[in-house]
């Protein structure tokens, strides 16, 4: 990964003739032209670095897009209104009626809902497979156009053979798209392993404060250009003020993520040996089914891990209710540590047999680790487990 500070310094020196330390905020919806000749030049150039109407682009947004592209080693990048927009806009931009998409299981439920329930209305067929190369290859059809996977996946942290996947996609003429939200550019750069596109919910590690919603897409310039057009067409834009705040918070992302990597792994290793824990899911644990792939591709495991508590639903609830430092809430990547029981938070309305097929149990808790002291967090988990039984 390119140093975050270095990448932002480079953008600062090249994107604005005044070379400000921080990007300027352009709170305008309209950009003017001196005359029709300038307007014609703009229309013919079709450059994302020139602006007319803020739904299609803004200098503040463009500054942060350069940073995202630099961090991911991408030809170009575009920001959008949310992580869900980052996942959905490329699909809606690149696929059409009659196309087929392959998506891997163990994923963010809302993404899977979009793929399984929304895309068929557009005439786009989908297949959900396990996150391994053989399953993906077996699902390819003549009409397949895009393969989409998370890395790591959520909430069981599967790690696919990324270079194997991107090599397969290139060989078969398919677009590869990786949701790298759980990793962040600090821990993984999918494009450097051959991916065509990488998407992020920048609400998480980039923003890092639980105070704004944002998404981003980086990758091949020709693909990003199509995604940018669709974002402008559907209005899924990120306002200039939010782009500025995202730019500023990204400056500390590397420091935050590296600390969260270390604290999270320490807690996961500790709880793996706890008598009241049935199983711990973390990409860097030796017990992880894809541990070899994780060590090969990831520089760190991120701030998430999942535990399956001994007992059942009642013990899980008692554990969550007994914590003092950890709070109950969704999302991750923030300074505050959070607990997310998926059976309630995200899968409450999913049929039990379908939850079981997804690997979600009644006693499972996804843990997002913040920036608190590791010993304080360990003590809190310990006392909560004691009270749960």
UniProtKB/TrEMBL annotation:
Keyword Magnesium assigned: no
Gene Ontology biological process terms, A to Z: methionine biosynthetic process; transsulfuration
PANTHER family linked: CYSTATHIONINE GAMMA-SYNTHASE (PTHR43379), CYSTATHIONINE GAMMA-SYNTHASE 1, CHLOROPLASTIC-RELATED (PTHR43379:SF1)
Keywords carried by this UniProt record: Pyridoxal phosphate
Source domain of life: Bacteria
UniProt lineage: Bacteria, Pseudomonadati, Spirochaetota, Spirochaetia, Leptospirales
Molecular-function annotations in GO: cystathionine gamma-synthase activity; pyridoxal phosphate binding
N6-(pyridoxal phosphate)lysine: residues carrying this PTM: 204
Pfam families: Cys_Met_Meta_PP
Keyword Cell membrane (UniProt): no
Cofactor: pyridoxal 5'-phosphate
Protein name per the record: Cys/Met metabolism pyridoxal-phosphate-dependent protein
Similarity comment: Belongs to the trans-sulfuration enzymes family.
